[in-house]
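From the methods appendix. Each design record in this collection lists the tokenized structure first, followed by the designed amino acid sequence. Records were kept in a plain field format so they could be parsed without special tools. The example shown here is representative of the layout used throughout.

RECORD:
FOLD TOKENS (261 positions):
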């Protein structure tokens, strides 16, 4: 952790105008994320977790307040390729090989063929998919497809990784394995990660900071700095320290419901 601020949101709100009237998605969000942090966003469905990620990525614009990414606007950060985005579904093109899917953003960005090949090799190694470059998505399991999706987001070496429930559709055994792999990947790359989840154990296991959000309009009910060590075997989830953090997350979720009308 360097203390360098990567994301700074101040008094940020977002209201969607719909045919049925305004929808208040986010309200009065104040949040700072420092370089190298792993920050999870947890809260009930519709609380604005994904919306906040999309604001960071310049896919949605706030109605009021401000947000800076690396000291510039989300639009400027997007244009400077500051982040990779991993969605809930792997979103791999079935007619492209795994290598071809990972190369796609590199092709769009105009990297040379030699640079593309080296980057694909490196990120496949990072996500433990060496030897799968010529396979097609349908030949891989769901967990492997998500790892390929992460590799694609890492291919152009963005500093920030935005992950929107990437393991939500996977079974628990696969999810546990990918959680372990993601922590190893984070330790190797020192990326700043913003991670949306509905799972309390996942949020506590992965994060250095957990942002607990209330039901719509999405407000921050609590921000929890993890007391767990960076080195986290899966069985750390049985320790009193882990259960204490999980309890605080649960209490924050419960308290967040007090905002409801």
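DESIGN:
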């Amino acid at each position: 952790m360097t203390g360098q601020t990567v994301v700074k949101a101040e008094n940020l709100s977002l209201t969607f105008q719909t045919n049925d009237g305004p929808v208040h998605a986010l309200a009065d969000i104040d949040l700072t994320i420092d370089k190298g942090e792993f920050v999870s966003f947890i809260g009930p469905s519709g609380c604005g977790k994904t919306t906040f990620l999309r604001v960071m990525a310049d896919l949605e614009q706030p109605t009021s307040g401000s947000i800076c990414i690396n000291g510039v606007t989300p639009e400027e950060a997007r244009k400077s390729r500051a982040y990779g985005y991993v969605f809930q579904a792997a979103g791999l093109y079935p007619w492209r090989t795994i290598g071809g899917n990972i190369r796609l953003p590199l092709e769009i960005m105009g990297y040379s063929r030699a640079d593309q090949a080296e980057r694909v090799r490196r990120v496949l190694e990072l996500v433990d998919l060496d030897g799968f470059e010529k396979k097609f998505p349908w030949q891989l399991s769901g967990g492997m497809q998500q790892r390929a999706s992460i590799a694609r987001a890492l291919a152009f070496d963005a500093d920030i990784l935005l992950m929107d429930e990437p393991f939500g559709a996977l079974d628990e055994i696969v999810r546990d394995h990918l959680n372990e792999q993601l922590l190893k990947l984070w330790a190797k790359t020192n990326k700043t990660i913003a991670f949306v989840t509905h799972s309390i154990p996942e949020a506590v296991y992965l994060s250095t900071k957990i942002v607990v959000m209330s039901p719509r309009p999405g407000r921050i009910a609590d921000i929890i700095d993890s007391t767990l060590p960076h080195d986290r075997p899966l069985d750390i989830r049985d320790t009193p320290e882990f259960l204490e953090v999980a309890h605080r997350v649960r209490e924050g979720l419960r308290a967040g419901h007090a905002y409801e009308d």
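APPENDIX NOTE: The domain at 1-80+200-261 is CATH 3.40.50.300 (Rossmann fold).
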